[in-house]
Design brief:
The chain is α+β, with helices and mostly antiparallel strands. It has helices spanning 3-13, 19-32, 36-44, 46-54, 174-186, and strands at 59-65, 70-76, 85-86, 91-97, 99-108, 111-121, 124-128, 133-137, 144-150, 160-162, 169-171, 196-197. The radius of gyration is 16 Å and the shape is globular. The chain has one domain: Jelly Rolls (Sandwich), CATH 2.60.120. A hairpin with a 6-residue loop joins strand 10 (160-162) and strand 11 (169-171). The longest helix is centred in the N-terminal third of the chain and has 14 residues, at 19-32. It contains five helices and twelve strands. The chain binds fe (ii) ion (FE2).
């Protein structure tokens, strides 16, 4: 499926009674329809897909950036990790090559506590609720590739992030969030083991 077609079908799915479930079904179908390399070419175009095959660095390739729908293709290199964050809407992540390990957090009094974990191994679609707080990492020696969809303007709305060590809540700032991530990766930080597997 081409990126344009995926966005068109996702826009239709937004009108369903349960958009997140409907987008989940669409992404399940999308990642089942072609082997990973072919899927990347169809979604992103040959040139962008080949760059990713050659040097799998962290990257977010936007397919749509609108007030009610954001979809991007995400590449997570080996050792990638980020800090806890929220989305303020439903989120659907379709891992089609490699894996994304999730740690889900809960607010308890004034603290943030790791509550559950989920290793999403391709092909796997994870649907998250509006109030989900999580962090992700790639523990494999190979990159992970996924399609991420959100029911809002993911890169523009006010959201929260939690400092990776103090777990203090702060307004999300893309530059600081990315700097935290780079620092965690450089130091080889791993997300906690704590939490019930989902
Ligand atoms: Fe997230």
């Amino acid at each position: 499926m081409s990126g344009d077609m995926l966005v068109r079908r996702a826009r239709d799915a937004l009108r369903a009674a349960e958009p997140a479930q409907s987008i989940g079904a669409l992404l399940r179908e999308t990642i089942a329809a072609a082997p990973p390399r072919e899927l990347r070419r169809a979604l992103l175009g040959v040139e962008a897909a080949e760059r990713m095959d050659g040097t799998p660095r962290f990257g977010q390739h936007l397919l749509v950036d609108s007030p009610e729908l954001t979809i991007f293709h995400a590449t997570l290199p080996p050792g990638f990790v980020n800090a806890p964050h929220d989305h303020r809407t439903w989120a659907v992540v379709a891992v089609y090559e490699g894996e994304e390990r999730n740690v889900f957090y809960e607010r308890r009094d004034d603290a943030l506590v790791p509550e559950a974990s989920l290793v999403a191994t391709a092909p796997r679609v994870v649907v998250m609720r509006d109030d989900t707080i999580h962090a992700i990492e790639n523990r494999l020696p190979t990159p992970s590739y996924a399609i991420h969809a959100y029911g809002n303007a993911h890169f523009h709305v006010a959201r929260s992030m939690w400092h990776p060590e103090t777990l203090r809540e702060e307004p999300r700032d893309e530059k600081i969030f990315a700097a935290w991530s780079r620092d965690m990766i450089a130091r080889g930080v791993r997300l906690p083991e704590a939490g019930t597997p989902r």
